[in-house]
C-alpha cells in the first residue's frame, strides 16, 4: 500500500565493522520479507540499502530491525558492528546533519550523495566470514527471541558495550569494557536471610548515630542485601554456559578488579582479553537465542 502521496522510501544505513569487513561487490538477499542490498561504501564503511518502503514509518521500523540484525551479525562472526543511533530524513536539498555514518531515509527517485566516512585498518577476509555475517543478520531479523531479549535494558546496554569493545584502541580498555558486559548482565539475587538481618541492624545503627556520611553509608549497606558482583557473574555464566565458563568468568573478574583497584596490568592481558571476548560472545549468543537473560 502506497503512502498518502504515492511516494516510496529508501533506507540507507552505513555500518562500520571492527575488524573491517570490506565488501568488494554488492550482496542482494532477503531476510524476513525485507529485500536488502549490502554495498561497499567509502573506505572503512559498507551500507545496507532497503528500497520500495511504502512509508516513512515503515522506513523507521526497518531501521530499528536493522539495529538488531546487524548486532546479531557481528555477534555471529565475532566483531563489532557500529551504526548511527538515530535516523534522519533527507529532503533532497539540505545535507543530513549528524555524525559520521549517519543513517538516512529519503524519497525514492531523489539523488542522494553520501557523506564522507572514516577508514579502519584491520579487516576480515570477506569470503571466509560473509556467509556467517549474513546468517547472523538473518537470525537477528527473523528470530523472535533476538529482539525479545534486547527489550531488556540490561541486555541492550551489554550489547552496546560488547560492540564498543571492538573499537577500543588498547587491550586494557577492551578488556575492562568486555568485563563491563558481565557486570551489567549479572544476576541480582538476594543475600541469605542471616546476612539481610545483619545488614538491617547495621542500617538501624547508622540511622541512630546519624553520621555526616549517613546517606552514603546507607546506600553502601543496601548493596549488601544482594549477592556480590562476582557471585552474580558466576551465577549468570553457570546458568547459560556451565561450570567451566563460570570458573573462567571468576578468574577474569579477579583480574579486572586488580586492574581497576590497583592500576596493575597483567602481563598476559592480550590473552585475557581474548578469553573475555570469547566468553562474552558465547554468553550473549545464548541469551539472544533464549530470548531472556
Helices, strands, pairings?
Elements: E1 9-18, E2 27-31, E3 34-40, E4 45-53, H1 56-77, E5 80-82, E6 87-90, E7 103-107, H2 126-142, H3 145-149, H4 153-165, H5 171-185, H6 193-209, H7 214-223, H8 229-241, H9 243-262, H10 269-290
Parallel strand pairs: 6-7
Antiparallel strand pairs: 1-4, 1-5, 1-7, 2-3, 3-4
Give the oligomeric state of the chains in this entry, treating copies of one chain as homo and distinct chains as hetero.
single chain
Task: Tell how many strands the DSSP assignment holds.
Answer: 7
Tell me the radius of gyration.
Answer: 23 Å
Percentage of residues in DSSP E strands = 5-15%
State the domain count.
2
Q: Would you list the SSEs in sequence order as H and E?
A: EEEEHEEEHHHHHHHHH
C-alpha geometry? elongated
Query: What is the distance, rounded to the nearest whole angstrom, between the alpha carbons of the first and last residues?
Result: 38 Å
Largest sheet: 7 strands, mixed
Into which percent range does the helicity of residues fall?
A: 40-55%
Low-confidence stretches: 114-121
Report mean pLDDT, rounded to a whole number: 85
Instruction: Count helical runs.
Output: 10
| Structural category | alpha+beta
